[in-house]
Amino acid sequence: MRILVTGGAGYLGSEVARQAEQAGHEVLATRLDRAPPHGRPVSLDIRDENETARIFLKHGPDVVIHTAYRQADEEVWGAVVKGTHNVALAAHRADARLIHLSSDLVFDGEREGRYTEDDEPRPVSLYGDAKLAAERLVRELHPEALTVRTSLLYGTLGAQEALALRDDVEFYTDEIRTPARVDEVAAALLELAATDVAGVLHVAGRDALSRYELARLLAAAHGRDPDTVRGAPSPPGRARNVALDSSRADGILRTRLRGPAEALHSL
Ligand SMILES: NC(=O)c1ccc[n+]([C@@H]2O[C@H](COP(=O)([O-])OP(=O)(O)OC[C@H]3O[C@@H](n4cnc5c(N)ncnc54)[C@H](OP(=O)(O)O)[C@@H]3O)[C@@H](O)[C@H]2O)c1
């Protein structure tokens, strides 16, 4: 397959490109500022509609795996909403399968159990608003596309590991997520690329745990005494429990999405 990965230098995008290349696929990895470590780099700013359409038509990918985004308030609408609009439109015009990455933060966090794909998204942050707007654009512009919602990603030295190794950070004891190992999510995306599964799919880790519990596990896995990790309650206004129910994905995928307690043993 010819696979185009947006955000080819990102945490998830570079892992998708690495695995895809290893599996023998032809990989195009989009580049904004940083150089993608895997795949053939293709310069692209997805906020540019004409350029996105031109690049997709020129390279004719079979599949687009859309990971590119920015989370900062001042950049989020352009990168996530405008960018996803352009990617969805261009992928549809180029007749490419589209897998779009979204987030557990489309939910408000007010429920006790886990969120399924049938639950109503109700974001409480600008980032969540932008991701939900992007999901709706994908559904409208590319009805056969798949939106994959995932949770905190960890596994190689990334943002979560860097935080867990700092001693000046307090981790929320009451903010519940379903963290997923980045290589397992990447493998799941590549499996899904070869299917026609459409709509929304939750692809997250098995365990629901707090950011504090995750930080303790990551600290221990990387040689820091977990008892030195500090916990604190989250400030008001944040989504409290956005644990995802991934049982639909479990029924589709060969890739197992483990919880951190198990998955960190095999790092
Ligand atoms: N990381 C998590 O814990 C997490 C949790 C839930 C969902 N997700 C979702 O997973 C996806 C990937 O996350 P990640 O952590 O891998 O992200 P990341 O490491 O921050 O990478 C994002 C990539 O997007 C690129 N990018 C940003 N704006 C762009 C633009 N206008 N045009 C083209 N490329 C652009 C960046 O380019 P540069 O390399 O040049 O900066 C970067 O390579 C996102 O859609 C996110 O919403 C992530």
Task: Tell me about this structure.
With 267 residues, this protein is α/β, with parallel strands linked by helices. The longest helix is centred in the first third of the chain and has 21 residues, at 73-93. It has one domain: NAD(P)-binding Rossmann-like Domain (Rossmann fold), CATH 3.40.50.720. Helix 1 (11-22) packs across helix 6 (182-193), helix 2 (49-59) crosses helix 3 (73-93) and helix 3 (73-93) packs parallel to helix 4 (126-141). It has nine helices and 13 strands. It starts with a strand and ends with a helix. It has helices spanning 11-22, 49-59, 73-93, 126-141, 159-164, 182-193, 211-221, 247-252, 260-263; strands spanning 2-6, 26-31, 40-43, 63-66, 97-103, 146-150, 153-154, 170-172, 176-177, 180-181, 199-202, 209-210, 230-232. The strands form four sheets. A seven-stranded parallel sheet has the order 3-2-1-4-5-6-11, with helices on both faces. A two-stranded parallel sheet has the order 7-10. The protein binds NADP nicotinamide-adenine-dinucleotide phosphate.
Question: How are the SSEs placed, and which strands pair?
Answer:
Layout: E1 2-6, H1 11-22, E2 26-31, E3 40-43, H2 49-59, E4 63-66, H3 73-93, E5 97-103, H4 126-141, E6 146-150, E7 153-154, H5 159-164, E8 170-172, E9 176-177, E10 180-181, H6 182-193, E11 199-202, E12 209-210, H7 211-221, E13 230-232, H8 247-252, H9 260-263
Helix pairs in contact: 1-6, 2-3, 3-4
Bound molecules: NADP nicotinamide-adenine-dinucleotide phosphate.
